[in-house]
Specification:
Layout lengths: L6 H16 L3 E6 L4 H9 L24 E7 L5 E2 L13 H11 L3 E2 L11 E3 L6 H5 L7 H5 L1
Helix pairs in contact: 1-3
């Protein structure tokens, strides 16, 4: 299992942070690489633990477990981290959350808010064309250096 975000995900995430800042949107990365133990603890929320269901993925079933996904939130002008989909902190008449999702998609991320089933609005991922089953079998996306070889 990886010990950090995939280099391409990390590179594009840094671009997303810069571009969001350029639009006066302050985003916070609330999750990145997640261990199997952390994934199973999240899966228990709303099931065997108190709280709302936040994931349908058990350990090994999330792109987070392979360093290919991150979650984000928006920080408001008071410095509070919020998950308000309608918040327009930069005052341009558009949801900051949606603006970030659009920037992320332009950088090659898939956005969980586009999913037809369970909508995961904070979630961004890069699959590199690999399914969870392929990742579970040990396949991994190549890094830019490996692609050049």
């Amino acid at each position: 299992m990886p010990e950090s975000l995939h280099p391409t995900v990390d590179k594009q995430l840094n671009k997303l942070l810069e571009q969001s800042k350029g639009k006066n949107i302050d985003i916070v990365i609330t999750a990145g690489l997640r261990s199997k133990e952390e994934q199973n603890q999240l899966y228990k929320k709303g099931r065997s633990k108190e709280g709302n269901i936040v994931t349908h993925a058990k350990a090994g079933e999330s792109y987070h477990n392979y360093g290919l996904a991150v979650d984000y939130a928006v920080r408001n002008k008071k410095g509070e981290i919020i998950w308000d989909m309608n918040y327009d902190g930069n005052g341009n008449g558009r949801s900051d959350w949606i603006e970030v999702a659009e920037l992320a998609k332009d950088l090659g991320f898939e956005w969980g808010g586009d999913w037809s089933g369970f909508k995961d609005y904070p979630h961004l991922q890069m699959t590199f064309g690999l399914s969870i089953a392929q990742l579970q079998e040990g396949l991994r996306p190549k890094t830019e250096e490996e692609q050049q070889d």
